[in-house]
Amino acid sequence: MEIRIRAKGTVIILELGGRLDANAANLVETIGQCIRDGYADILLDFDAVDFIDYLGLSALVLGYKELMNNKGRLKVVNLPLHLKEVFSLTGLDRSIDIYATEDLAVNSFKEDRAIEEIKKMHLRRRFKRLFIDLKIELRPKDSLTPTCLNADILNLSGVGAYIYGCDQFKLGDEVILKLRLPTPFGDMELAARVTWLCDKQVQPQTYPGMGVEFSHIPPEVQEKLVAFIDKNLSLTPIDEE
């Protein structure tokens, strides 16, 4: 399979040619390199693709998942009719957006980002932030062994936290926080993703540290967390996140 790479603004367009089959591994490699180069919005142009099989679909799904794990987006343009049927039968058309023209696809990335920022702004305004010093354990999502046994949460909200005293993770890592709140709130385990790393030169007083955003937090757990924050806010200055 041939891949031609070009950029349109912040969107990387991969023009695919030939067959997406056992030789489609270079598609996953190319998407991974784009992510490492700082590009998260990728558009696949299928205009010159004449065949796709199970292995080609698998490579496409792997690339899609890698982008999703890095907060990126994958979209498709110029999908031939016979390949549209394949996308429909496999359900890919329900996960990957398909566009008729390049301009429509590129503009959709801009619209997605704008909507996402608006949603984040509204979400953060709903939750207050509590400045606190709370000991926690921290481990990778796919491990049962704590990486940091004595880290501290310095501020906490219903959607995220700032963690001090642990430098074992990188941006995008998925982690599990284990914290013990006083009665009646009890113990909690919260899944989160690392979204920000403290810069030692800029903020040496809170280094090493990182910001995390909670993910897949059950509503009842979030309600308990917010109740804990609200109860303690009377003792601390209020800051909106």
Account of the protein in words:
The chain has about 240 residues and is of the alpha+beta class. The chain is about 30% helix and about 40% strand. The protein contains 5 helices and 12 strands. It has helices at about 25-35, 55-70, 80-90, 100-125, 220-235; strands spanning about 1-10, 10-20, 40-50, 75, 95-100, 130-140, 150-155, 160-165, 175-180, 185-195, 210-215, 240. Strands 6-7-8-11-10-9 form a 6-stranded antiparallel β-barrel. A 5-stranded mixed beta sheet has the order 1-2-3-4-5, with helices on both faces. The chain is elongated, with a radius of gyration of 22 Å. Residues about 235-240 have low confidence and may be disordered.
Structure in a nutshell:
This protein is of the alpha+beta class and 241 residues long. It has helices at 25-36, 54-69, 81-90, 102-126, 219-233; strands at residues 2-8, 11-20, 41-52, 73-77, 97-99, 128-140, 148-156, 160-164, 174-181, 186-197, 209-214, 239-240. A hairpin with a 7-residue loop joins strand 6 (128-140) and strand 7.
The helix count comes to 5
> How far do the termini sit from each other?
47 Å
Q: In what order do the strands lie side by side in the largest sheet?
A: 6-7-8-11-10-9
Residue-averaged pLDDT, rounded? 87
Q: What is the domain total for the residues?
A: 2
Given helix and strand content, the structural type is alpha+beta
CATH architecture descriptor name of the largest domain: 2-Layer Sandwich
